[in-house]
Amino acid sequence: MMLRPRSVRGRLALWHAGVLTLIVCAFSGAVYALVRAQLLRDLDARLARDLATIERTYREADYDLAEVETRAGVELFEVTSAGRVLYRTAAWTRIGLDRAALTEAGPATWSSPHGHSYRMETRSWHELRIAVATDEALTRGALGRLALILALAIPCAAIVALAGGYLLAGRVLAPVGALADHARRITAEALDARLPVEDPRDEFGQLAGVFNDTLARLQDAFERLRRFTADASHELRTPLTAMRSVGEVALQNARDPAAYREVIGSMLEEVERLTRLVEGLLLLTRADTGRTHAAREVVDLGALATSAVEHLRVLAEEKGQELTAAAHSGVRARCDPALVRQGVVNLLDNAIKYTPQRGSIRVVVEVLPSGEPAVEVRDTGPGIAPAHLERIFERFYRVDADRARQAGGMGLGLAIARSVIAANGGRIEVESTVGNGSVFRMVLPAV
Ligand code: ADP
After folding, report:
1. Ligand 1 in reach of 411 Cβ (< 6 A)
2. CATH number of 8-163
3. Any atom of ligand 1 within 6 Å of the Cβ of 131
């Protein structure tokens, strides 16, 4: 089973210790190999020196090889000529070096039956052969001590690396713990809280920054949802209250059939309002969840706008308004005709609603200089102040709630128009100055 601690701190400490131990092992191995090679080189150099001394003595001191042993202190050597021993030190025989298989391939190690190791070298000149040896005990002792020191250093280094890594990881990861503590305290009721960002440039600062951005978006979404629920409940309550009071009054006083019919009629009006509200909400919810399926057809915008104008003409006539349509021929867009018609009807409905009696409304279908097809609804109504312009597309937002409600507005018309046009890949622009009317422009994707 692999050792895998649950905490990042533990894993970091283990990795740190593991890597450091590997480095120390590799370093120790290299040091041991280098020292061993150097010590053996020293031994071999000494053997070479002894060989040279013996050879020189043999040639210069008139074959008196005992001098080498007594004066030069070379204790282990043997000189033979054609297999006949010319000189052999006493130690050579005692140790049993004469039984060692001598090679001339270079210095080699020979182990005696008693477990001692000797470094040997042999050299021949014609029939003369000189063999020299030296005890490896000192070298081996030094190497053994070095190996012991290195072997003890490895576990010590591992333990120190583990402890150091654990401490270091603890220090480095401390901000994560602090962030987690802070984040744990943030609930749906306290979404305005933010994580502390000590240094926005380091990794933890960036993490906290991203988390804070997400929190801000969540807070915004929660806030909108809360407002939306409150507004929707309010809108639903109004027709329900109206129906209830109309019904209660009708029940209390006995009336004739015509009066009851009137009561039912006004109740149906409220039901109609409720139905429109629920349908609008459903449409927006579907758009929010990306379930609005927009067909991609080539649509003649002129024909579509003219048909919407004719559909609503009776409302404009009721207010004595002049309603005209100017459609450049052949303006076409790639969109869903039903959704775009719904957008045009909403804009037109607003223009008729908010433009006073005998005002004028003009629908223009054209191609913008950018090449995009557009439907414009211009009116000579009251206009919209800049402060409201930014918000009129929000759900349930009305500039003058009471007046809008009286006019039959629920504050969803523009939100729905924008949502259906967006589902078609288009956008709605608005230009308006107070007292000078408004222009709502739907821009759609070209064919
Ligand atoms: P409503 O159902 O109240 O009309 P909308 O979303 O359609 O809701 O419009 C939001 C608000 O924008 C309206 O309450 C109104 O104040 C303002 N508005 C929309 N269209 C016009 C217009 N053509 N002229 C003036 N004000 C407008």
Report:
1. yes
2. 3.30.450
3. no
